Amino acid sequence: NAAIGIKYAQQQYGVGKVVTLDWDVHHGNGTEAIFIDDPNTLTISMHQDNLYPPDSGNINQPEGGVSNINIPLPAGSGSGAYRSAFEKIVMPAIDRFQPDLVVIPSGFDSCALDPLGRQMLTSDDYRWMTKQLMFMAEKYCKGKLLACHEGGYSAIYAPYCGIAVLEELSGASKSFEDPYKNIVSNYGGQDLSYDQEKAIERVENAYL
């Protein structure tokens, strides 16, 4: 869906450079494959290392320059790891690319209560990541940002994560209460761990 939207925007509206940030727990292999040879589209995928598809989403650096950045994070990565990856990799990459449009393939199966993934994000983490991308969109794109819904298989928690993104995008004056937030945010392992830090450093050294 995100790739189709990007192609349409480029062909119908003359949009130039586009960056995508996929925070779905699975590797964004489809978007990567479609745009891997397109210098005007930078695809970034933050995902659980080697979850799905198997042996996909590894660190790679295509010849002729970087058009795709994979950020494979260890299982059990939570707020600390995702925010560190944003600050050390995602934001600098967007600064360097200077896009005309930011697109978020926004999946919520990286949340802590998803039955298929093993990451530990809270609704506030999705809200925080959205805020950072909105800042970058204001900086380079006059606020042009598109979020499209992807995966998310926790019937009880994905809706709270989704509404956090919508509230941030809309500038809502009030937030819908997330009854699970305090429980999830206090899970052990939310802080950046040594192995997560080293995984982020390997990505940083490969691409930036």
Could you walk me through the main structural features you see in this protein, from its secondary elements to its overall organization?
- With about 210 residues, this protein is α/β, with parallel strands linked by helices.
- About 45% of the residues lie in helices and about 15% in strands.
- The chain is built from seven helices and five strands, in the order αβαββαβαβααα.
- It has helices at about 1-15, 30-35, 80-95, 125-140, 160-170, 180-185, 195-205; strands at about 20, 40-50, 70-75, 100-105, 145-150.
- Strands 3-2-1-4-5 form a five-stranded parallel sheet, with helices on both faces.
- α4 (about 125-140) links the parallel β4 and β5.
- α4 (about 125-140) packs parallel to α5.
- It is globular.
- The two termini are about 30 Å apart.
Please write the string of helix (H) and strand (E) elements. HEHEEHEHEHHH
SS summary, helix count = 7
Write down how many β-strands occur, each being a DSSP E stretch of 2 or more residues: 5
Instruction: Supply the helix-strand structural class.
Output: alpha/beta
Strand fraction: 5-15%
Write out the strand line-up for the largest beta sheet, numbering strands in chain order. 3-2-1-4-5
Rg: 16 Å
Question: What percent of the residues sit in helical stretches (DSSP H or I)?
Answer: 40-55%
- Which sheet architecture does the biggest sheet show? 5 strands, parallel
Instruction: Give the N-terminus to C-terminus distance in angstroms.
Output: 28 Å
Q: Give the overall shape, derived from the CA principal axes.
A: globular
Mean pLDDT: 95
Q: Return residue spans where pLDDT drops below 50 for at least 5 consecutive residues.
A: none
